[in-house]
């Protein structure tokens, strides 16, 4: 029996099954994403969603869905499903689903009349190709299969509307057709492994609704174009492969190709193997560079996310070469001591992240821990290290500069520079202009790490310049952020001298980083506060529930969600730093506590994004998963914690 499985009673209950999404990726940026019953609930859903570098660099939905209809003895059983106005689902193909299983491939088993049909889906790695294998497991009589493709040809952030500009004619290719609705797009080639007949019946399907977009306050109705349908005869034991690709393929090779790709896939048969398989979703190759996609379906390459997630996705999995390639790809974008906050679909970096350069040092620390070669690291990256430290010391964009006390100040009106970057109508929800606790914890860690590398590499000139700074930073950090009576760290000190004593997760980094200005006694007190007010079974809250600004549920319009994003929502990636802090103090006696938290995520592999971990969770119980269905630093954090725990056993 498969580890990840859903049965008939779960699948036919749309309140349950429409909340479970399954993701496939190809390592080039393309993906396939829908619910486990095949009903698209987001504008980001589609069977083949591909980046269009020559158009706008963004992802575009080409093939939205493919309806399968089984026809036997003049009875038709359509296995498709779409939502229309008033909770009207047409057709209602989910009622034929008997099982949904994930292992080396993703299988959906249908029973329609006397027919049992298994559908398996996969994305071909390093190719813009979706393959679906249909197997007729049982059929008392011969049957006719009909396949109706639903086309969108639009950006993932937009919606398609019926229009007179769409090119409705198709061209016939071997065992299939090619269609291109609009100029500028590649033709979508849809082919089968066996001979079939395509019947051109061009038509628009109007007002398909995406319920998740409606919940999020966005436009949610779309018109999809169907150029016609494929028909073919089949019988018990037949195996048929469908291919959707931007390139024409040889139909005779499809069966072997599917089998080869499935056999090469990693089995998802336990918690750890699912996490490891998820790591492959995020690493993509683009323009001969490697990047980490922060999350699916709407994130791209983000600087801080890359450096935070990289060790867990690569180094901890023995992928040193890939991890280094990602590092080097990011370094190519370094400007004025800053790494991009994100790299847009047009490949233009946006440099509004104060912490991405400081997380770079954290990644290097993990790199050195993996290689055991600090001298080699200094030799490879000393130019970058020195540039970042110098620019932070002397000043760079957004008023980022080291002040005389040794601490880093940063920020300007209307810009959110830290990871708490939600903005509503141009105004940051948590502006945090001034001295930020995690920024200065990262700054101290970066300076100390650089000095350690320089010592081992005998770079005396660097040491002469920087060796006196750590003590200054340490004293200023304690004076600025620590309060003995409160027993925790302030979050921010602004330019007017006002301290924000909100109990936030950002203080945990000062306890967890390899170099910390805090004493063990101070760490104990901070961890107690974090444990009592911020820790949940799914991560750390971003704000204590005792705070009047706390928002415990992440839902509603964009503005409502942004209000909760960093004002109470729970983030799994923060658990890594809680675990590091906790285990560094409690050693082996703390292992059980940390393991209990990590392995509780196992049940979430069935809860939202199947086989992966969500971006965030509600701050309030029962802590429902929200946001992106699969997030890089969430997966990476759990893998890192599992690795760390082993060191303390």
What labels would you give this structure?
single chain; 649 residues; alpha+beta; Beta-galactosidase, Chain A, domain 5; Glycosyltransferase; 2 domains; nine-stranded antiparallel β-sheet; eight-stranded antiparallel β-sheet; 40 strands; 29% strand
Commentary on this structure:
By secondary structure, this protein is an alpha+beta fold. The chain has two domains: 4-264, Beta-galactosidase, Chain A, domain 5 (Distorted Sandwich), CATH 2.70.98; 271-648, Alpha/alpha barrel (Glycosyltransferase). The chain is 31% helix and 29% strand. It contains 18 helices and 40 strands. A nine-stranded antiparallel sheet has the order 1-9-10-11-12-19-16-15-14. Helix 8 (356-371) crosses helix 10 and helix 17 packs antiparallel against helix 18. The radius of gyration is 26 Å and the shape is elongated. The model has no long low-confidence stretch (mean pLDDT 96).
Question: What's the helix and strand layout?
Answer:
Layout: E1 4-7, H1 8-11, H2 14-17, E2 21-25, E3 31-35, E4 46-51, E5 59-72, E6 75-78, E7 81-84, E8 88-92, E9 97-102, E10 106-112, E11 115-123, E12 129-138, E13 143-155, E14 171-173, E15 176-179, E16 188-192, E17 197-209, H3 211-215, E18 221-234, E19 239-245, H4 254-264, H5 271-282, E20 283-286, E21 289-292, E22 295-296, E23 301-302, H6 303-313, H7 320-331, E24 342-343, E25 349-350, H8 356-371, H9 374-394, E26 401-402, E27 408-409, E28 423-424, E29 427-428, E30 435-436, H10 437-457, H11 460-466, H12 469-481, E31 482-483, E32 488-489, E33 492-493, E34 499-500, H13 508-512, H14 520-533, E35 535-536, E36 539-541, H15 558-565, E37 570-571, H16 575-586, H17 591-599, E38 616-617, E39 625-626, E40 630-631, H18 632-648
Antiparallel strand pairs: 1-9, 2-3, 3-4, 4-5, 5-6, 5-13, 7-8, 9-10, 10-11, 11-12, 12-19, 13-18, 14-15, 15-16, 16-19, 17-18, 20-21, 22-40, 23-24, 24-25, 26-27, 28-29, 30-33, 31-32, 33-34, 35-36, 36-37, 38-39
Helix pairs in contact: 5-18, 6-7, 6-8, 6-18, 8-9, 8-10, 9-10, 10-11, 10-12, 14-16, 16-18, 17-18
């Amino acid at each position: 029996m498969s580890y990840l499985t859903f049965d008939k009673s779960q699948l036919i209950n749309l309140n349950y099954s429409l909340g479970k999404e399954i993701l496939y990726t190809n390592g080039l940026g393309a993906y396939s994403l829908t619910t486990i019953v095949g009903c698209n609930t987001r504008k980001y859903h589609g069977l083949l969603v591909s980046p269009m570098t020559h158009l706008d660099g963004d992802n575009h939905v080409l093939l939205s869905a493919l309806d399968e209809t089984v026809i036997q003895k003049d009875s038709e059983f359509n296995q498709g499903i779409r939502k229309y106005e008033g909770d009207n689902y047409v057709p209602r193909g989910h009622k034929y689903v008997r099982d949904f299983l994930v292992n080396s491939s993703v299988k959906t088993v249908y029973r329609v009349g006397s027919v049992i049909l298994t559908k398996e889906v996969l994305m071909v790695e390093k190719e813009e190709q979706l393959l679906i294998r249909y197997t007729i497991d049982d059929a008392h009589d011969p049957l006719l299969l009909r396949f109706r493709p639903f086309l969108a040809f639009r950006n993932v952030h937009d919606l398609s509307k019926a229009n007179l500009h769409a090119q409705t004619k198709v061209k016939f290719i071997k065992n299939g057709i090619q269609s291109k609705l609009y100029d500028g797009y590649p033709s979508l080639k849809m082919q089968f492994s066996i001979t079939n007949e395509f019947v051109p019946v061009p038509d628009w399907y109007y007002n398909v609704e995406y319920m998740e977009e409606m919940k999020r306050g966005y436009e949610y109705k779309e018109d999809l174009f169907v150029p016609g349908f494929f028909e073919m005869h089949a019988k018990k034991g037949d195996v048929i492969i469908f291919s959707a690709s931007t390139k024409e393929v040889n139909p005779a090779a499809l069966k072997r190709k599917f089998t080869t790709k499935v056999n090469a896939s990693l089995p998802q048969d336990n918690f750890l193997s699912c996490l490891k398989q998820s790591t492959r979703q995020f690493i993509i190759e683009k323009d001969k560079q490697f990047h980490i996609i922060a999350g699916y379906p709407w994130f791209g390459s983000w600087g801080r996310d890359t450096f935070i997630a990289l060790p867990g996705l690569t180094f901890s999995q023995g992928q040193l070469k890939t991890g280094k390639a990602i590092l080097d790809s990011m370094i190519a974008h370094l400007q004025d001591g800053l790494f991009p906050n994100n790299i847009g679909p047009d490949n233009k970096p946006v440099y509004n992240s104060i912490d991405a350069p400081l997380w770079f040092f954290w990644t290097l620390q993990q790199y050195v821990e993996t290689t055991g070669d600090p001298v080699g690291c200094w030799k490879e990256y000393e130019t970058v290290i020195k540039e970042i430290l110098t620019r932070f010391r002397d000043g760079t964009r957004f008023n980022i500069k080291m002040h005389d006390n040794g601490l880093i100040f940063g920020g300007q009106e209307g810009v959110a520079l830290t990871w708490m970057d939600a903005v509503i109508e141009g105004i940051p929800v948590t502006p945090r202009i001034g001295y930020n606790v995690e920024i200065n914890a990262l700054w101290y860690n970066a300076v100390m790490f650089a000095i350690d590398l320089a010592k081992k590499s005998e770079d005396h000139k660097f040491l002469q310049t920087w060796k006196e700074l750590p003590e200054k930073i340490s004293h200023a950090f304690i004076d600025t952020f620590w309060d003995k009576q409160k027993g925790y760290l302030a979050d921010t000190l602004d330019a007017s001298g006002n301290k924000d004593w909100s109990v936030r997760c950002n203080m945990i980094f000062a306890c967890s980083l390899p170099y910390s200005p805090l004493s063990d006694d101070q760490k104990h007190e901070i961890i107690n506060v974090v444990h009592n007010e911020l820790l949940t079974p799914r991560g750390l809250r971003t704000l204590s529930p005792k705070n009047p600004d706390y928002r415990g549920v992440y839902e509603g319009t964009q503005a409502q969600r942004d209000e909760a994003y960093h004002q109470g929502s729970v983030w799994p990636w923060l658990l890594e730093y809680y675990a590091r802090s906790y285990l560094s103090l409690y050693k082996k006696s703390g292992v059980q506590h940390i393991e209990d938290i990590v392995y509780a995520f196992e049940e979430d592999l069935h809860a939202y994004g199947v086989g992966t971990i969500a971006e965030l969770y509600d701050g309030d119980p029962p802590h429902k998963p929200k946001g992106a269905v699969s997030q890089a630093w969430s997966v990476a954090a759990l893998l890192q914690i599992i690795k760390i725990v082993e060191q303390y056993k």
